[in-house]
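Sat 14:20. Reprocessing the chain from the morning session after the first attempt stalled halfway. Input below, unchanged.
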Amino acid sequence: MTTQEAAERFRTLQRQEGRVDPAALDEVFDALPTVDCREILGEWKGGAFDTGHKGMAALKAMKWYGKTFISPLDAKPLICYDEHGQLFSSNAMKGEASLWMIQFRGKVSAAMVYDGVPIIDHFRQVDPRTLMGIMDGKPSVLDDGKHFYFYLERI
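Finished this time. Tokens:
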């Protein structure tokens, strides 16, 4: 799959109603190009692919909005809405995070390492304004060994 085909397939899966096949998301993620930590600094609005992963319900309950990357050592993984509709950085994951270049599935790309839980979010670039992410971690973080798939759109 070419990079352009991967980006087009990503958009199709992003618009898909109902459950999305994780195998299709894996194929797209693996075909997308890597991205450098400095390229993703800024504010991002998030969304998730419905694969049935328990992470989707958890983010919905937290009223997750997105992520903010201020610098490589200052990343805010859970920007959420409060009861008044205002955005804030939640510490539900026992702290915040930092950005690192990490190898995942044979490619080195930007990744966010959480401070307080064993989670790493790996990123690939769909286009200059869109990232695809996979939440990885120890078995206790995964949902029966399954990853959580999400995307970020630059504000």
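Strands lie at 42-48, 64-71, 74-81, 87-89, 97-104, 107-114, 119-127, 130-137, 148-154.
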